[in-house]
Specification:
It contains 6 helices and 8 strands; from the N terminus they run H-E-H-E-E-H-H-E-E-E-E-H-H-E. It is an alpha/beta fold and 289 residues long. The chain binds zinc ion.
Length: 289
């Protein structure tokens, strides 16, 4: 019994860090500089179909859950800034200092297909979403976090979160779970706080982990709320990587001289230059109108 319990504890305290090249353990881990106050700004449009301002509250709660952990043991701070009118989930290399880029959270309300013209250059460089204010990623992903970092040492400067409203009904109620195929905003379909707690994990530098009990498990089913609560592994990440009073932990010594001073984004999808970590839904669900 003791052994079994111990094994469970150890398993549940694991986490995986995001890297410059996803799943490439020879590439560097992403990290925010110690003592950074990460200011996040929610797009003022919110989500059209979520009642009242409940989506804003849900997003604030998700950040608050992480902030509670950070306050206990870590040097980083998450802080809400004023709502923003920007719908540019992009990194602007002309902003000085780089970390002055806005970290934006927004709901995309339509798909890019049919909005962005065929042949537009945005399809090849991954800029359609911000250019035409649309969801440019796979239909099955609930949300995408795009993180921009230094190619020299993997320090993060900017992280933006987009939510996929064309494919998912985002809800904020606590009960009951929706029946699949009959989702409305009056039951739990795709919970905003559940989704956002996972995405803020990406923002902080966490990758997916194949553990059903983890906030960073990449799958979410209709009616799920479990990711609202941080698992022990995700909590441990915060204290391990961003210890209060110390430098943030990198994975190894930075490779100096490689593309020195130039900013780049690399990633895990077919779109070059971006790190995109999806809270994927392998259950393909289309909204019913
Ligand atoms: Zn994810």
């Amino acid at each position: 019994m003791i052994h079994a319990l111990l094994a469970t504890v150890i398993l549940s305290q694991t986490y995986s860090r995001s890297r410059q090249v996803e799943l490439d353990t020879t590439s560097q881990c992403l990290w925010w500089k110690e003592n950074t106050t990460i200011v996040y700004r929610i797009n003022s449009d919110g989500n059209a179909e979520t009642p009242g301002d409940t989506e804003f509250t849900a997003i604030q709660r998700a950040f608050g859950t992480w902030q509670t952990e950070l306050a206990g043991c870590a040097s980083l701070t998450l802080q809400e800034g004023p709502r923003t009118s920007s719908r540019q989930a992009t990194y602007d290399s002309t902003v000085d200092p780089p970390a002055a880029n806005e970290n934006i959270i927004l709901f995309r309300q339509r798909r890019c297909a049919g909005v962005a013209p065929n042949g537009d250059a945005c399809w090849s460089d991954g800029s359609c979403g911000s250019k035409y204010d649309c969801w440019q990623y796979t239909e099955g992903a609930i949300a995408i976090t795009t993180t921009s970092f230094s190619p020299r040492n993997a320090q993060v400067f900017d992280s933006d979160i987009e939510l996929n409203t064309p494919s998912f009904i985002f809800t904020t109620v606590d009960s009951p779970p929706c029946v699949r195929g009959s989702e409305t905003v009056n039951c739990i379909a795709t919970d905003v706080q559940n989704t956002m707690t996972h995405e803020v994990g990406h923002l902080l530098g966490l990758a997916h982990i194949n553990d059903a009990a983890s906030t960073m498990n990449p799958r979410a089913v209709t009616g799920e709320l479990t990711k609202r609560v941080l698992d022990p592994g995700s909590k441990k990440f915060v204290c391990d990587v961003y210890p209060k009073g110390q430098a943030s932990k990198t994975c190894f010594i930075p490779k100096l001289g490689i593309e020195s001073g130039k900013l780049a984004k690399t990633g895990c999808t077919e779109v070059p230059g971006l790190t995109m970590l999806a809270l994927g839904a392998w259950l393909s669900r289309r909204r019913k109108r």
